[in-house]
Design goal:
Blueprint (H helix, E strand, L loop, with lengths): L3 H13 L13 E4 L24 H13 L11 E4 L11 E5 L8 H12 L3 E7 L1 H15 L6 E2 L39 E6 L5 E7 L3 H6 L8 H20 L1
Parallel strand pairs: 1-2, 3-4, 4-7
Antiparallel strand pairs: 5-6, 6-7
Helix pairs in contact: 3-4
Length: 250
Amino acid sequence: MNCPRLTALLATLLASAPGAAQLPTADLHFTRLIYDTVNLCPNLVPNFSAAWTTDQPEAEYNLTEIIRRLTRVNVATEGDVFRTFDLMDDALFDYPWLYAVEVGHWNLSDPETERLREYLLRGGFLMVDDFHGDCEWAVFMDSMRRVFPDRPAVDIPEDHEIFRLVTPVDQFTQVWGIILLNRGVTYENEGKVPHWRGIFDDVGRIMVAINHNMDLGDGWEHANDPRYPTELTAIAYRFAINYVVYAMTH
């Protein structure tokens, strides 16, 4: 029997349920972390009002489209490609891959560090990108040491499977941001040496992939910009595709 009042009531309850509007519609959404922006390196970087939004939304659309073409991952359709979450949103646990950009500008609270620890130990994967130099590294690690006091960030060996899953990485080249065009350098904030680091769990799974002194997000965002080097976009895509597939399968 059709009951309009009951139907309306159920619709209202579902619409107001926490995370109801954020349920996954595919295996992969580009999931971006929201955090409060701080500027603890005032001599090196500008004061962003929302650093976590950097490269949005072009990076999301371009990366998910290339993943759709090159893998069998069930990627969300256009119009529903990306999601954004803060760490206290319970819906985050429905998403296996999480991206955080400009993490030299975050300063996680104690509840946020506890929630990130839970997310990662329950199987989540965090990729961080686009932060440069010693000061931004220190800011990032201040929060990560509170997430995992007993787990260091270590260099990921170049022969690790995470670099070989789908699109083998054979060039560990610094991927730099478009802001550096015509400046004659490939680094920001004295971050001359690129690093690919990780934080591992007890069985050797990478939980956090750390891209320091690099800007993979610009490689995705500017993939269609003729000014940006094609070879850097290709490298940025290779890393990201492997990270995503690793997150989905480990």
